[in-house]
Amino acid sequence: MSFYDKLKYTSDGLIPAIIQDHATGRVLMMAWMNRNSLEATVKTGKTHFWSRSRQKYWMKGEESGHTQTVKDIAFDCDGDTLLIQVEQVGAACHEGYRSCFFRSVTEDNDRITEEQLKKPGDIYGKK
After folding, report:
1. pLDDT band at residue 127, thresholds of 50, 70 and 90?
2. What totals of helices (H) and strands (E) does the chain contain, helices first?
3. Measuring CA to CA, how many Å separate 27 from each of 11, 99, 108, 109?
4. What is the largest CA-CA distance in the chain?
């Protein structure tokens, strides 16, 4: 049995993937994968995802150049979540931060906890 068959996908055929920096352990992002995007990730060594909002398959960094090279892929004991460790080039977040988790909660508010590497327009070549 292939490991793909051990995974539990949602009724939409998706599985959540937590993307983690291989060197630091920092969680960079969470995205959705379907079997095709997971197969492409395994085959190419670059992360590929399914965009629920755009209903589109995409490779991380295809527009921005901020790619993720896969170092390890694991799945949890239930087979319903992936953990992918990567070497991140540039910002993982589309808002220009190293991590999508750049806000921390403080009582009833939030604060930005890391420096913005690039403005969103600069990431995608729009100024």
Report:
1. very low
2. 2, 8
3. 26, 7, 23, 21
4. 49
What's CA 51's distance to the chain center, in Å? Answer: 11
pLDDT tens digits along 9-39 = 999 999 999 999 999 999 999 999 999 999 9
- Rounded to two decimals, the pTM is 0.89
Continuous segment of H or E residues that includes residue 73:
strand 68-75
Cβ pair 103, 93 in contact under 8 A: no
Q: Do residues 86 and 20 lie in contact, with contact meaning Cβ atoms separated by under 8 Å?
A: yes
Angle at 27 between CA 21 and CA 31, to 5 degrees: 100
- In the three-class reduction of DSSP (H, G, I as helix; E, B as strand; rest coil), residue 41 is classed as helix
Which residues pair with residue 58 across a beta bridge? 49
Domains of the chain: 3-92 (3.10.20.810)
Task: Please give the backbone phi and psi of residue 22, each rounded to the nearest 5 degrees, phi first.
Answer: -60, -40
SS3 category, 5: helix
Tell me the backbone φ, ψ of residue 13, rounded to 5 degrees.
Answer: 80, 25
